[in-house]
Structures are given as structure tokens and as C-alpha cells.
Design a protein that fits this description.
It contains two helices and 24 strands. By secondary structure, it is mainly beta. A four-stranded antiparallel sheet has the order 1-24-23-22, with no helix packed on it. The chain has a four-stranded antiparallel sheet with strand order 2-3-4-5, with no helix packed on it. The two termini are 36 Å apart.
Length: 357
């Protein structure tokens, strides 16, 4: 069945149920800054898993580059810093013990740099000078027989203070630390600002407060925690104590000409399961905050109010500028300035939005 037919069927079903089909939000005009990052001639990006921006507009890129072994081997992770103009400055944490398989990088309000490594099960805090000041989790010992974690049913019980493929980190207004953990444990771990364990919430499931791949996490100005519950195709919102507040689902019609970056055209059921499924989220600063979320198919970025209303969208999957190949992290230092890290296209794009147009 072609996507045209699927969309028509959805409209018919809505009419039969007495509900109006959801209005398609407007496309936001935008530009991509060409060749923004300027790397040395002997340095290359691999799959770009993370991007973050500090208060000085320095850009931090967490790439699955510098690889010397298989994906879960020695060093499929490299943390790089660039100036506001995109000029390369330095590599942070070269040969770090935690480096294994890069996932995301974040910068807190004090410009500390946080790297989340899915392969080593570790989260590392660097000060602005690039020195390690705090570590969370512990990687498997090289002296033991080991391999990547696998999902089992029922899930393995989570262990306080340890992780199984963590995905992201954020902070509330009190400096408490929240780590999404992640591909295996399906929970949120909370530490206080000193790094002491506080609590956890969540397990694998579909009910409110349960998760299936909590892949990205962010906090608003009030300290509420937003979790991109990717495989459940929703964003869940909690207060800092882990009390469920609401669920956000992004239901925007799939364009008839949408296509995946690789592989066959998904079935209508597969397309519906991917559409709006949040891979990466970020919340812009300012008096009026907005939530940005990306999906892998049809490969768009959505702009939402914090209550969950989609007010605009942009982009599509592809390999050209202004197209996307699996956006894995979004940095939004302002409402109209975004940086996106792409897994499949091995790049960071700086996007300038022009909603007034």
C-alpha cells in the first residue's frame, strides 16, 4: 500500500470516528550554514553521536571516530571542541579510559562538559579546562570475559550506581543529575549535585513511568524532566522527584514522498511506528521555552510547546545539506539556532531558523 493510500485511510478513519484529522503544522524556513566545522586535514569525523554548545558558543562534538577496533572495542569515541566560528580548537580526553562507543555530549550551566559513553557504561564530567572531575558507572574489566549487553526477558534488575548502555544526562534547578539508562535498563537514575545516589524510577514497559529505550533527556526552567521514550514513540514528562506529569506524542502525517536513508520503504505499520518517535530532544532557553524533537523517519525536526503542541517542523531524510541522516542529538542554544549531530551522514549541521518568513 502506498503512503498516499495510507494517508487517505487515516483521514477516512478519523471521519468515521467523528474526529477531525490533526492539522499539519507549518514548515519552518531554515538555512544550513555550509561547511561550518573546520577540521585539520588529518582529522575526520565518524558517526557523529553528540553535539553541545556552551555559554561562549563553543561547539563540542562527540564522534565515533578514531576507531581502532570493532564498535564495542577500544576507542570508537572522540570528543572535539570548536570555536564559535567552527574552527577546531582541541581534542578533550584523548585516550580516556571511558571511551568505547560515543553516545551524547552535554554542557551544564557552569560550562562543564558531560560525555555519555554507551559502550563503557560510563558518564564522565569534565571541567571547562577539559579535566575529569567526576565519573559515574564502571566499564567491564578487560580481564573478564565480556561482550556487549543483550536484552533479556524479563529484564535484568537494574543496579544502583551502575549502568547498562546509558544514553543521556540532564540537571534540574538544584543541580541534581538525571541519567537515562537506556538501551538495557530502561530507567532514569537520579544523583544529587555531589554525585551521591538518590533514586531511580522506571522499568521496561508501556505504562506511564515505564520506558522502552529512553534515548534522550532534557529539563525545562522549572526543573521538570522530559524523557524521549523512543521505542514507545512518546516523550514523558516528570517532576524532579520522578512523578509522572504528562505524555507527549507527535502525530504529524507522513509526506507521500518520504523515504528512508537506507533500506526498503517501510510498511504502513512500520512507518507509523517510526513517525514522531523521539531520537533526540532539547529545550531552548528564554522566557518562552520550546521543545525540539527529531525522528529517524521521515527524518524531521519538530518544534513544540512544553505542553506538547507541534507549532512547526523542518527537514527530511537525505544526504544533502538541510537533509538529515538519523539525528542523534540536538543542541538548541536559542529558539532559532540549532546544531544537529547525524549518525549516518557523519556530520554536524548548524541550522538557522526563520519562522517569521
Amino acid at each position: 500500500m502506498k503512503l498516499y493510500s495510507v494517508l487517505a485511510l487515516l483521514c477516512l478513519c478519523s471521519a468515521a470516528s467523528g474526529q477531525e484529522p490533526a492539522a499539519t503544522p507549518p514548515e519552518i524556513p531554515y538555512d544550513a550554514v555550509p561547511n561550518f566545522l573546520r577540521l585539520p586535514s588529518d582529522l575526520h569525523l565518524g558517526e557523529v553521536a553528540g553535539v553541545a554548545v556552551n555559554s561562549q558558543k563553543h561547539v563540542f562534538v562527540f564522534s565515533r571516530g578514531n576507531t581502532t577496533g570493532p564498535a564495542y572495542g577500544a576507542s570508537a569515541a572522540q570528543l572535539l571542541e570548536f570555536g564559535p566560528d567552527g574552527k577546531y580548537i582541541r581534542e578533550i580526553g584523548k585516550n580516556l579510559y571511558a571511551w568505547s562507543f560515543a553516545h551524547v555530549v552535554r554542557v551544564d550551566k557552569d560550562d562543564n562538559i558531560w560525555a555519555v559513553d554507551k559502550g563503557s557504561d560510563m558518564v564522565v564530567k569534565f571541567n571547562p579546562e577539559g579535566r575529569v572531575v567526576m565519573v559515574f558507572g564502571r566499564k567491564k574489566e578487560a580481564s573478564d570475559e565480556n561482550g556487549p549487553w543483550t536484552r533479556v526477558t524479563p529484564p535484568r534488575p537494574a543496579v544502583n550506581g551502575q549502568f547498562r548502555q546509558p544514553t543521556d544526562v540532564t540537571w534540574d534547578t538544584q543541580g541534581n543529575i538525571f541519567i537515562s539508562d537506556g538501551y538495557i535498563n530502561s530507567r532514569i537514575a537520579k544523583f544529587d549535585k555531589n554525585g551521591d545516589w538518590v533514586k531511580q524510577w522506571g522499568d521496561r514497559g508501556t505504562k506511564p513511568g515505564e520506558f522502552n529505550t529512553p534515548h534522550s533527556i532534557a529539563a525545562d526552567a522549572k526543573g521538570n524532566i522530559y524523557v524521549a521514550d523512543r521505542a514507545n514513540r512518546r516523550i514523558q514528562v516528570f517532576d524532579p522527584d520522578g512523578t509522572f506529569i504528562r505524555e507527549i506524542k507527535i502525530d504529524v502525517p507522513i509526506p507521500p514522498d518520504a523515504h528512508p536513508w537506507m533500506g526498503n520503504q517501510p510498511s504502513p505499520e512500520g512507518a507509523a511506528a517510526q513517525n514522531g518517535a523521539p531520537w533526540a530532544i532539547c529545550i531552548s532557553p528564554g522566557a518562552t521555552q520550546y521543545l525540539f524533537s527529531s525522528d529517524a523517519f521521515p527524518g524531521r525536526i519538530y518544534k513544540l510547546t512544553l505542553e506538547g503542541k507541534v507549532v512547526g517542523m523542518l527537514g527530511r531524510t537525505g544526504r544533502q545539506p538541510k537533509q538529515f541522516g538519523w539525528i542523534h542529538e540536538i543542541a538548541c542554544p536559542s529558539e532559532n539556532e540549532l546544531y544537529v549531530a547525524e549518525i549516518l551522514n557523519w556530520r554536524v549541521q548548524k541550522l538557522m531558523l526563520h519562522p517569521a518568513k
